[in-house]
Design goal:
eight-stranded mixed β-sheet, alpha/beta
């Protein structure tokens, strides 16, 4: 009888350990030096996910050059600086933007030095993983890949999305990111979004050129997540500090971004199934 009770308890503990396993929902967006519309794209994608009933946290981790709060035209009472200086817990610096849509704002213009951030990015990522269970998705907007802190953010994420554009310099930036990740033994699948395209042919040519180079020189196969056409309305929304996907919900480009959010949902679900 005691033996049977012990086995029941063991099975219950096993079941509890499975259900308590954290979801793999940290998706990092990166693009190299910038200029391809990564922040605008990821921010709008995150918003559209929230409009589908998903609880989404947008984490602006472009330390010292954050601008998500500017694009959203909101004033945040606290940001990452408060966390780094030990003044606030991570949960307490998150601002609600809209239904199901939350922002973890970064800081700008404080001239953080590597010595100042040493060890603090690791602490940030640890705390971010702890609270990630409160959200269906945590969309991370990374900064330029020119320091160890940003690479640490990428390597600590559950999925990586590389945003590029048809411009040769942007394609080269994307290739360099894949190369550096390869050097760091990163085994995560690299998903690619081609932004600011003229049409689907423009996207296919861009992705094929990038993927051919990474397969040939790095033995790394990339996965095309989708593409987004160039639209002057996006520039207009940025200038007016209004979210494009909210102002132009029925536009063709907004529908493309919404389709991307569906693709993101699919590969995150696959990642969680594989983890299970």
């Amino acid at each position: 009888m005691i033996g049977q009770l012990k086995r029941i308890i063991e099975f219950q503990n096993l079941g509890n350990s499975k259900t308590s396993k954290p979801s793999r929902n940290l998706i990092a967006f990166t693009s190299g030096k910038g200029g391809v519309g990564k922040t605008v794209l990821s921010l709008n994608l995150a918003y559209l996910l929230s409009q589908k009933g998903k609880r989404v946290l947008f984490a602006d981790l472009d330390v010292n050059f954050s601008n998500a709060h500017i694009l959203l035209n909101i004033i945040v009472p606290k940001n990452l600086k408060d966390f780094f200086e030990g003044k606030s817990l991570l949960n307490n610096i998150i601002s609600k933007v809209d239904n199901n849509f939350y922002l973890l704002a970064g800081d700008s213009g404080s001239m953080y030095q590597n010595t100042y951030l040493k060890g603090k990015i690791s602490s940030l990522l640890t705390e971010l993983k702890k609270i990630s269970g409160n959200y269906d998705y945590v969309i991370i907007d990374t900064g330029q890949m020119n320091d160890r802190e940003q690479m640490e953010i990428l390597l600590s994420s559950d999925s990586i999305v590389i945003v590029t554009s048809p411009e040769p310099t942007a394609v080269m930036d994307a290739y360099v990111i894949v190369k550096i990740l390869k050097q760091q033994n990163c085994c995560l699948t690299k998903h690619v979004i081609v932004n600011k395209c003229s049409d689907v042919r423009d996207s296919d040519i861009t992705f094929n050129n990038l993927n051919t180079a990474t397969e040939h020189f790095l033995n790394e196969k990339l996965h095309l997540m989708g593409y987004v056409n160039f639209d002057s309305l996006i520039h207009k929304s940025v200038t007016s500090q209004k979210l494009f996907s909210k102002e132009y919900f029925n536009s063709p480009v907004c529908k493309q971004i919404s389709k991307l959010s569906g693709s993101l949902t699919e590969f995150v679900q696959v990642a969680n199934i594989n983890q299970s």
